[in-house]
Amino acid sequence: MINHDLYHKLISILPKKDVLVDEYLKDHTYTRLGGKADFFVTPETYEQVQQVVKLANKEQVPFTLLGNGSNLIVKDGGIRGIVMNLHQLNQIHTDGTTLVAGSGARIIDVSRKALEAELTGLEFACGIPGSVGGALYMNAGAYGGEIKDVLAHTLVVTKEGERLHLTADELDLSYRTSNIPEKGYIVLEATFQLQKGDYHTIRDVMDDLTFKRESKQPLEYPSCGSVFKRPPGYFAGKLIQDSGLQGTRVGGAEVSTKHAGFIVNKNNATAQEYIDLIHHVQKTVKEKFGVQLEREVRIIGEDLKS
Predict the structure, then answer these.
(1) A GO term (biological process) for this protein (predicted)?
(2) Phi, psi torsion values for 26, nearest 5 degrees
(3) Is the pTM here over 0.85, yes or no?
(4) Segment 94-122, tens digit of pLDDT
């Protein structure tokens, strides 16, 4: 049943086009998985973000921030309440050696903007598929670089709907983690401190990293990217490969034959099939090597009711 009262309150805050009802989340995730959101909202301003958070609090409605859905599995039963996506907060601008980006901007586009401005420091991000907000959420990294190396400060909205300026140190950034989930912050924008560099040198590094990514990763199929964190002293992909799991399938989900660290949606997989395959990989690697693989990908939402 649609909560008409909540709908009318949402469209008093946001343009009607930015409030979708019973929206399939598989249309908004990189894995192409996920059931319906009761309300799917896409604010255009920081004030709208604050107002929606305050409304959810006042009405005691569940609230979920989706990001751009790159490092995420949404279960087949979808998500109740309000789901927010910030892809419209995607502005990027530079000022000297500083770059400011909205949380909905793709981190790939941010690295390209840095290249245009002849700024070095974000080359590592040229192949990371997530948004700026998601990159801060998990301190995204690749090829020896990570967000905490270049982040100066950020603007967030608290659980109560208040704006807060935080330094990078105040986010407790470490390997693939931050305190953003624990504190319930919603990132509005990030400010990166970069260095002046040579355009051609920066471009050559980015071209090299892009080639490595495209030649090694199964980008031809929907996926959530790297499924598991790197276990101390090992590589997750190597452990999975050495366990003979490449090509293993559960329904439409498959351990990639191109890169064992990826699980791809090969043929209209359900979220449950994807999750079952993750558990199978974890169980097999644990049995063979005694190593417990820890998920890097987030799993949210409800199971499909039978």
Answers:
(1) cell division
(2) -65, -20
(3) yes
(4) 999 999 999 999 999 999 999 999 999 99
> What would the 3-class secondary structure string for 68-132 be?
CCCCEEECCCCEEEEEECCCCCCCEEEECCEEEEECCCEHHHHHHHHHHCCEECCHHHHHCCCEH
Q: Quick one: angle between helices 46-59 and 4-13, nearest 10? A: 160
Query: How far apart are alpha carbons 244 and 196 in whole angstroms?
Result: 46
* Alpha carbons 262 and 259: distance in angstroms, whole number: 6
What are the C-alpha distances in Å from 38 to residues 51, 52, 147, 300? Answer: 18, 14, 33, 15
**Residue 74 near residue 275 (C-beta atoms within 8 A):** no
Domains defined along the chain, listed by start: 4-84 (3.30.43.10), 92-202 (3.30.465.10), 218-300 (3.90.78.10)
Task: Tell me 303's DSSP state.
Answer: P
Residue 220 to residues 223, 252, 271, Cα–Cα distance (Å): 9, 15, 19
